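Hi R.,

Here's the chain you asked about this morning:
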Amino acid sequence: MSLKEKLVSSFLAFEDHLEDDSPIHEIRTKAIKNFEHKGFPTKKEESWKYTSLNPIIKKDFNLFPKQDLAVEFKEVKKYFLHDIDTYKVVFIDGIYSSFLSETTHDSMDICLLSSAIKKPKYQAVIETYYDSLADESSLTSLNTAYAKEGAYIYIPKNKEVEKPIEIINFSTGNEAALLMQPRNLIVVGENAHVQIIERHQSLTDNEIFTNSVTEIFAEERAYIDYYKIQNDRSTSSLIDSTFIHQERGSNCRVHTFSFGGGLTRNNLNFKQNGEGCDSTLKGITIIENEQHVDHNTLVHHFAPNCESHQDYKGLFDDRSTGVFNGRVIVDREAQKINAFQQNNNILIHDQATVNAKPQLEIFADDVKCSHGCTIGQFDEDALFYLQTRGIAKKEAQALLMYAFANTVLESVTIPVLKKRINSLIADKIGVNIGFNI
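And here is the predicted structure, written out as tokens:
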């Protein structure tokens, strides 16, 4: 039985095992039918031309973890921002861990999506926002059908969250191979401000396939600072689909740091629905061996007088593969748009591969839009210059890598996180740099 057949045939059993009748039953049923019709995406689809799921979907994944395996904080401390106080929503093999989490309902809601779906006091928010932004692609539909748990974050108007929120999904390897489908819903009210860090982390080398979906709504003049840390084991695969809806004057920033995992696909979709929106999409990819990272971005400008800024840097060693497929769409009504898109890549090894496809679709006539893409190797002159100053070749390459990544790192606004990212980069390139960017 193929994985698709297993997922379709197991859906009724999944719904039967829910604790009670789900108010989103019709949404789930429609989604599984859509997935059954479309199946897993293939390289015949233009947006998946350079990324194949065949090595993943041939495996026999367990859809339901057999038991909740306890995890001690000392075992996972290094994956948290333990240097500062944070709210935490933590899941172990898809099951909420109250022991590792710190949630709140004090003037805002940072809790579980399953609770929000079931409790009447949250129904107005769920009915308004849940599944109203996610697209109907096959993997998003699969998540909609099977999603049982995730983070629910509701920040009311004029609220500035005083500390960052961490959303962490751990997989213990309790199953030989496990498919997890977390779902997050985040609503940030008018003039509200929040910082969020998201991470998926395997604790063993057992196979993990995570199909994650996050819907984010930014009301008028809301500010959202979102960070994705992807530094998993080579036996993990991640499909991360994030959908962001912005209202007038809102500012949404997403930084994606892709340093690990066997296959990682980031689908990041922005919709600017009001004047004065500002969208920032930045990423650093540093991978090796046969790792594969695919960034698939879309910024859709529906309203005038808005800005979007994309800046993705990639460093690829050995036989690794990078993909950047970035689209900017400017509607006819979206005049005076300033849209910038840049993708720069360095091939450390001559067998590494990068496929880049920046795209602008402009239907307005009074805009400022630009895009650029470079794929190359280290600047030999700069490398030679550093070596003539007594710097060893490996350290010289590391300095050039740090300088290359600086335009992304400089906009990280959480100092502890910035320090952590610097350490991860130093570890990836195998040197000890005595400074932070």
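One quick note: The radius of gyration is 21 Å.

Cheers,
M.
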